[in-house]
Design brief:
This protein has 20 helices and four strands. It is mainly alpha-helical. Strands 1-4 form a two-stranded antiparallel sheet. A two-stranded parallel sheet has the order 2-3.
C-alpha cells in the first residue's frame, strides 16, 4: 500500500507543477459517481481495463451506471500488451491451452500497439474541488495523499522501506534496465536477469512493481527492449518473444484468469487439480515465520516480509518447499502470503506461478521430476552464501562450506561461529531427502488414481519440454531431470 500511495503522490506532484491536484475520494465507485453527477455534467469516463476477473464486478457496476446515465465509457488497454478478452475470442472463446499456443494466437493478432506519447499537462484544465462546497460535503475527500496508517493499515514490525513508488523514480530504473538489456544483446545474449541472476541487488533490476502499478507502461518496456535488440542486430534476426518471454508469460496468465474468478483457489478452479494437501498449522507457522531450519528458505521469507520483494529464484524455491518439494501444504497458503507482502503481486501471475510450481496446473500433471534441494539450490547463484548472511545474520560467521547446511558443521565450527544449531538457529524442520521421496511417491500414486478412475485432466494442463522447465526454475541446462 505504501508503494501505491507513493505512486499517487508522485502523480499529484506532477499535477501540482502544472497548477492541478490529484483528488482521492473514499467510497464505492458507483456511489461516488452518483454524487458527482449531481453537480457536474459527465460526458465521458475514462479508465484502464483491469482484466483480472476478481475486479469485473466492480468495473461492470461502473459501466452499468454510465450506460443508464448516458455517460460514454472509454476503457483503454494499458496494463497488458494485448486485451486478454481479445486473445480468448481469437482462440475460439477459450484461453490458449499452452504457452506455445498462446504465442501463436497473439502472433496472429499482431504486435502490441506502441505506447502513446506522454500527456501534455500544460494543456489540461484542472478542476478545483475546493470550489464546490456542496459536493465536498457529500464526499469523503482526502486533503492530501493519505498514509497507510490513515487507511487503517499498520506497519508490521521489522519492515524496511527499500523501494519507492512513482513514475519519476521508475524511469531511473527503466533506463538503467534498458542499458543492461542492450549490453547483453551486444554480448550475444538476452534475458540478462535470468542468465546472470543477482539475488542480492537492491533495488532490483526488475521493473515488476513499476509495471504493476502503471509507473512504467508494459508497452513502453516491451518496445524499448525490442528496439534495443533491432538496433544492436540491425533487425537480423528481428526481435522475437524469446527476448521478452517474462512479459509474455505475464500475458499468458492474465489471459488464463480473465474469465475465471476462481483462478486463485483450488476447489472451484476448473484448471487446477485438487491435490489432497495436508493441513499442518505448525509447519505453516514455521514456514511463514522464516524458521524452517533451511537458511536459503528462511532468508527468502525474511526478505519478503522485510522488503516486499524477492528474486524469481527465491520465489521458486519458496513455492516448491511449501508444496510438493517438502512440506506438502497447499499452494493457496503461499499465494495469500505473496499477495500480502510482495509489492509487485499480481493475482493472476502469482496464482499461475504457484499452480505451476506445485504441479497443479500449467505443467505436466502431478509432475515431480524436479525437486529443488533447499540445501543446495541457492549455491548455484550465490556460492559464498552472502544472501543468507544478510537476511539470516545468526549464520553470518559460518564458512561458505556450511552456510546452506549449517547442521552439518561440527560442534567446534558452530561454536566458533557463535551459532549452535538447534539452539541459536533451528534444525531443519523436515529431512528434505525423505520428504522429497515421500512426496514424489504420493504424486505417482495420484497419477495412478487419475488414470484408473478415468478422471480427466483439467484441459489447460499440458506437458512442458525440459528446457522450458529448466528456464522457469533458473536451472543449468545440464541439470538432470528425474
Amino acid at each position: 500500500m505504501a508503494f501505491l500511495l507513493e505512486c499517487l503522490e508522485d502523480l499529484d506532484t506532477q499535477f501540482w507543477y502544472h497548477g492541478g491536484k490529484l483528488n482521492l475520494v473514499e467510497g464505492d465507485p458507483v456511489e461516488v459517481l452518483r454524487k458527482i453527477s449531481k453537480h457536474f455534467s459527465i460526458d465521458k469516463l475514462c479508465f484502464d481495463q483491469d482484466c483480472e476477473s476478481i475486479w469485473h464486478k466492480r468495473d461492470d457496476a461502473v459501466k452499468n451506471f454510465c450506460r443508464t446515465h448516458g455517460i460514454t465509457v472509454e476503457e483503454s488497454i494499458g496494463a497488458t500488451l494485448w486485451d486478454p478478452l481479445e486473445i480468448i475470442e481469437a482462440n475460439g472463446g477459450s484461453p490458449p491451452l499452452t504457452y506455445s499456443q498462446f504465442c501463436q494466437v497473439t502472433d496472429g493478432i499482431g504486435q502490441p500497439r506502441r505506447p502513446v506519447a506522454d500527456a501534455q499537462l500544460t494543456d489540461v484544465q484542472f478542476v478545483e474541488l475546493e470550489s464546490f462546497e456542496n459536493l465536498l460535503s457529500e464526499l469523503t475527500v482526502f486533503p492530501n495523499i493519505p498514509t497507510p496508517q490513515m487507511l487503517g493499515i499498520e506497519k508490521e514490525n521489522g519492515i524496511d522501506k527499500i523501494y519507492r513508488g512513482g513514475e519519476r523514480e521508475a524511469l531511473k530504473y527503466f533506463y538503467r534496465r534498458i542499458k543492461h538489456e542492450r549490453e547483453s544483446f551486444l554480448e550475444g545474449a538476452f534475458l540478462p536477469n535470468r542468465l546472470e541472476p543477482d539475488i542480492l541487488v537492491n533495488p532490483p533490476k526488475s521493473l515488476s512493481p513499476d509495471i504493476k502499478f502503471g509507473c512504467i507502461s508494459v508497452k513502453k518496456f516491451y518496445w524499448a527492449v525490442l528496439d534495443a535488440w533491432d538496433e544492436v542486430n540491425d533487425d537480423h534476426p528481428p526481435g522475437s518473444y524469446k527476448i521478452v518471454s517474462q512479459l509474455i508469460w505475464r500475458e499468458f496468465f492474465y489471459a488464463m484468469s480473465a474469465k475465471n474468478p476462481f483462478f486463485g483457489e483450488m476447489a472451484r478452479n476448473p484448471i487446477c487439480i485438487n491435490i489432497p494437501w495436508c493441513e499442518n498449522d505448525d509447519y505453516l507457522n514455521l514456514f511463514i515465520g522464516g524458521k524452517t531450519g533451511y537458511p536459503f528458505i528462511d532468508a527468502g521469507i525474511r526478505q519478503l516480509k522485510k522488503e516486499g520483494w524477492v528474486h524469481h529464484i527465491i520465489r521458486n524455491a519458496l513455492s516448491m518447499f511449501l508444496t510438493r518439494g517438502d512440506l506438502w501444504l497447499s499452494w493457496e497458503h503461499g499465494l495469500n502470503m505473496f499477495l500480502k507482502y510482495l509489492i509487485d503481486a499480481d493475482w493472476s501471475v502469482c496464482a499461475g506461478n504457484w499452480m505451476w510450481v506445485s504441479s497443479s496446473a500449467f505443467e505436466k500433471s502431478l509432475n515431480a521430476s524436479v525437486s529443488l534441494d533447499p540445501g543446495v539450490y541457492g549455491s548455484h547463484v550465490d556460492p559464498e552464501g552472502e544472501y543468507i548472511r544478510k537476511y539470516v545474520p545468526e549464520l553470518m560467521k559460518f564458512p561458505a562450506k556450511y552456510i546452506y547446511e549449517p547442521w552439518k558443521a561440527s560442534a567446534a565450527i558452530q561454536e566458533k561461529a557463535d551459532c549452535v544449531i538447534g539452539k541459536d538457529y533451528p534444525m531443519p524442520m523436515v529431512d528434505h531427502q525423505e520428504a522429497s521421496v515421500r512426496n514424489r511417491k504420493m504424486m505417482e500414486e495420484l497419477q495412478e488414481i487419475h488414470r484408473n478412475s478415468g478422471l480427466e485432466e483439467p484441459s489447460h494442463i499440458k506437458p512442458s519440454d525440459e528446457l522450458e522447465i529448466k528456464n522457469f526454475f533458473g536451472l543449468p541446462v545440464n541439470f538432470k531431470m528425474l
